[in-house]
Design a protein that fits this description.
The complex is a heterodimer.
Chain A: H1 6-22, H2 28-50, H3 52-56, H4 67-89, H5 97-116, H6 120-138, H7 144-174, H8 180-187, H9 194-211, H10 219-226, H11 229-254, H12 263-285, H13 290-311, H14 314-345, H15 356-359, H16 361-375, H17 381-395, H18 399-423, H19 440-458, H20 460-475
Helix pairs in contact in A: 1-2, 1-5, 2-4, 2-5, 4-5, 4-11, 4-14, 4-19, 5-6, 5-11, 6-7, 6-11, 7-9, 7-10, 9-11, 10-11, 10-13, 11-13, 11-14, 12-13, 12-18, 13-14, 13-17, 13-18, 14-16, 14-17, 14-19, 14-20, 16-18, 16-19, 17-18, 17-19
Chain B: H1 3-24, H2 28-52, H3 56-88
Classes of the chains: A mainly alpha, B mainly alpha.
């Protein structure tokens, strides 16, 4: 464990224990406690990473490897948006309000545990905790869709955990230790043992299933579509990214893909990344449900991260880390907006929606910002991360992959434009007739995230310095 | 055959029994039992690895934690099964097709 960040794990856990007792008399206390805990954590992280003296010093004072702190920041940011949104989204007197916030806070502390762990066993423990809280959160509203999504998620993540356990056992046999550091040392030897690479490959396969990369993507759309509306933002924005994609980036740096010691694994990972970019984007083109289309788009964006992680050069890892953060911002906005649309009109079927632009201008325009960032339009933040990934691919001589990544970026723009036209522009559909804009507190998280998207894009030089520090520390 | 090879032979047998159980049955409960078999086989690998590297104490500690976690995960899964049965009135996995696209 990275002990400097332990407080970010323990404080949400403590709040999660307190909430059911505190909210027994007054349900409102649950909302307040959850929001205050996350806001305090976020303010603390902002002070650690963004105070002027740290920025002027080129982020050299960041504790640990910088990657953990960045991701803990992203976790708290997304979770704060989701809790703030749910506080106004949930109907009054929903029976399991306190349980919902407790689970959300436990999932935040589990995610913090995942990103601060320094050995595979701790990683496994926190990922299982995260999975259990996700099952419960998906079924918050006890709808048939939610339970179906959660069951599919369960049936695919459980074998993935078994694979990770076998990988841990093989690593215990071949390496004798489970820490990240010993794997890094073993991989920097002249000829690393094949069994060590094999154990890492088993663990990698488990995490590929958990992150929903293409051959194993079947659970992702169902879980996102069926989930309770704010929970799908939490799940797509950060949970599956931390429980799957983070570990893939970490393994990619530990296995030293950039110097070609695990060539086959690196090539396989890049191929799967490209495949999920293609399949996700093409499947998103023909969806009729708003949330399901966003889920396929999420698969496609995860493909970019996996592609960059598979390449593993410092520039590519920078792109992967940056795209992970960007994905958390824009996908949260889009899923929260889909939840707003669902609340205002009662459906997420794109064929029934349409013309919401006039009645819901804020929701419409925050969606536009988020989708342009996803498609990689300058000067928004998504442009920079895709640029880094494509530049890294070009630099490594993988011209074909670079061109394909660029082309599918255009397909991304195409399906999002179709979505925007069907939901917000065009003629008014049946469901859109009587809808009004949702209240200001429901819009606040989306507007905040849009501000962050624009700010990250415009203040890219500062952020680049930070990500460069991260990439140097985790690779060297 | 050495004891180690025998271990892994049996473990492979347990895991494939689990996979067969998942493939051959339509009932969600039996699928869960198949998953349990796979997961138990995976846990046996840890104890075998600990024995082989004479690091049994570490392996046992890892395994006990894993068992505890697995119990929690399975409990959550069983709760989902029960809720699913209450809503759909069936435990057939092929009937789980409400979400499509």
């Amino acid at each position: 464990m990275d002990k400097g960040l332990l407080a970010y794990l323990l404080i949400p856990l403590l709040s999660a224990v307190i909430i059911p007792f505190a909210a027994r008399r007054r349900a409102l206390l649950a909302d307040i406690l959850a929001n205050v805990t996350l806001l305090a954590g976020l303010a603390n992280i902002a002070w650690l990473a963004l105070r002027p003296s740290v920025i002027q010093g080129g982020f050299a004072d960041i504790p640990g490897d910088g990657f953990s702190l960045l991701l803990v920041g992203a976790v708290y940011l997304v979770a704060l948006c989701v809790t703030f949104f749910s506080a106004w989204f949930m109907p009054e007197g929903q029976p399991n309000r306190a349980a919902y916030y407790s689970l959300l806070l436990v999932s935040v502390s589990a995610m913090t545990g995942v990103v601060t762990s320094t050995d595979f066993f701790t990683l496994y423990v926190f990922i299982e905790v995260l999975a259990v809280t996700s099952f419960a959160l998906i079924t918050t509203d006890e709808s048939a869709g939610g339970i179906e999504g959660a069951l599919k998620y369960f049936f695919l993540t459980f074998p993935a955990s078994a694979l990770i356990i076998v990988g841990v056992a093989v690593m215990l046999l071949s390496l004798g230790s489970l820490s990240f550091e010993s794997l890094r040392i073993a991989m920097s030897a002249e000829a690393p043992a094949a069994a060590v690479t094999f154990s890492a490959a088993l663990i990698l396969l488990g995490f590929l299933i958990k992150s929903g990369v293409v051959p194993f993507h079947t659970w992702t759309p169902d879980a996102y579509q069926g989930a309770y509306a704010p929970v799908s933002a939490h799940l797509a924005g950060i949970v599956t990214k931390i429980s799957g994609v983070y570990a893939i980036i970490k393994l990619a740096t530990l296995l030293r893909f950039f110097d070609g010691r695990a060539q086959a694994l690196s090539e396989m990972l890049m191929f799967l990344g490209m495949l999920s970019i293609a399949v996700g984007a093409l499947a998103a083109l023909r969806q009729t449900d708003f949330k399901r289309m966003l889920a396929f788009s999420s698969i496609s964006q995860v493909g970019y991260i996996v592609l960059a992680a598979g390449l593993g050069t410092p520039l590519a890892v920078m792109g992967a880390v940056f795209h992970l953060i960007n994905h958390a911002t824009f996908k949260t906005v889009l899923f929260l907006n889909s939840a707003s649309v669902e609340k205002a009109t009662g459906t997420t079927d794109m064929d029934k929606l349409g013309g919401l632009e006039h009645s819901m201008p804020w929701t419409s325009w925050t969606s536009v910002v988020a989708l342009l960032s996803t498609a990689g339009v300058p000067p928004l933040s998504g442009f920079w991360s895709k640029l880094l990934i494509i530049l890294a691919l070009w630099e490594a001589g993988l011209r074909g992959y670079a061109v394909m990544a660029l082309l599918f970026s255009i397909v991304t723009l195409a399906y999002f434009m179709m979505m925007q036209k069907k939901v917000f522009f065009g003629k008014k559909g049946q469901a859109a007739e009587s809808s009004a804009e949702v209240s200001a507190p429901l819009l606040a998280p989306a507007v905040l995230m849009c501000g962050i998207i624009v700010a990250l894009g415009l203040l890219f030089p500062y952020f680049y310095t930070y990500v460069k520090v991260v990439a140097e520390r985790i690779i060297l | 055959m050495s004891a180690f090879a025998m271990d892994w032979y049996l473990i492979a047998l347990v895991i494939f029994t689990g996979f067969y159980c998942m493939l051959a049955s339509r009932s969600i409960v039996r699928q869960l039992i198949g998953l349990e078999l796979i997961s138990k086989g995976a846990m046996l690998t840890v104890i075998s690895a600990g024995h082989q590297t004479s690091n049994l104490v570490l392996a046992q500690a890892l395994l006990i934690t894993m068992i505890v976690i697995e119990v929690v995960v399975v409990a959550a899964g069983l709760a989902l099964l029960v809720k699913n049965f209450r809503i759909h009135g069936t435990a057939d996995i092929w009937k789980l097709d409400g979400l499509k696209g």
